[in-house]
Write a structure and sequence with these properties.
Elements: H1 3-11, H2 30-43, H3 45-65, H4 68-80, E1 85-88, E2 104-108, E3 111-122, E4 129-135, E5 145-150, E6 157-162, E7 173-183, E8 188-189, H5 195-230, H6 236-264, H7 270-294, H8 305-313, H9 323-334
Parallel strand pairs: 1-4
Antiparallel strand pairs: 2-3, 3-7, 4-5, 5-8, 6-7
Length: 344
Amino acid sequence: MPDELVRALADAGFLGLGIPTAWEGSGGDTRCAVAVFEELSRASAAIGVLVAVHLSVCSVPILTWGTDLQRDRFLRPLARGEKVGAFGLTEPSVGSDTARLRTRYSKDATGFTLEGTKMFISNGASAGIVLLFATGDPALGHRGISAFIVPPGTPGFSVEQRFEKLGLRGSETVELVLHEVHLPPESLLGSEGQGLHVALGALQGGRVGIASCALGVAEAAFEEMRRSVAAHDDADWKRTALARAFANLSSARALVVRAAEAKDAGKPYVLDASAAKLVASRAAVEIAAAGVDVAGQQGPRERAVAERLLRDARVFPIVEGTTEIQELILARSLLSPDPGRNPL
């Protein structure tokens, strides 16, 4: 992402949304943040995702679980937009099953040493701060996982592969390698063994953010379809496709707003977040695919708006928890005696 574009986002206050002004953020609540994510993603899903990742799964977790010292050192530059945040959980052989993390850490009197690889990390190439997860003992499963705040300039930290993708081509997706990365004690976010709790909490909020990005792509695809249908004396099937797209879009928006409002009210929102992410992601793909069909011969052409929106939409059922994981969370939550608790 061009530096001048990140600077413009920072100057507009978008990189500090939801962060209190006491920590040099822009203030505002989740409802405000998701409205911005949606509008940014209508124009560019890559920009919307950059801001959503920076805030939802890096800045907000540091605000939530960090000490005042950590907030002062790490959160302030994130909120000012001087540094971009990233989230390092996924590994080459570990996606949704976070208890199987292979990135290791060891502890001594001077701090922690990390060793491992993180894969498909958004914002990873330009990040100034990465919230990263490692295990002290794989035998402990999720109880062995801890969260660390890692500045990428730390010796032993490197950006390796940069991945070309079907969509979101303006969004960085990279492999991060850690070789004997030594961190001081104050780099630990929360307590040792609390990492999975931090990760799941971050992802729960992140799903609301990513759902709003998907909603922005769905809105852009719908508007493109409406322009195409309105400009021609089109067949009834195109008009009915537009009607279905409107209903689909409206349903997704209602769920995103509901999840954001539940989060702002301090209510349990596991169900709302997963439902919003599931439905908004699906709506983005279905509306964008219908838009390509309605556009006829122009739709699938390379660099056509409808074609780009479909490529961008296709990433949303995968990131921040796949469609299958959202269905699993919903099913387990609905059958749980405590449906507000994260079942994973």
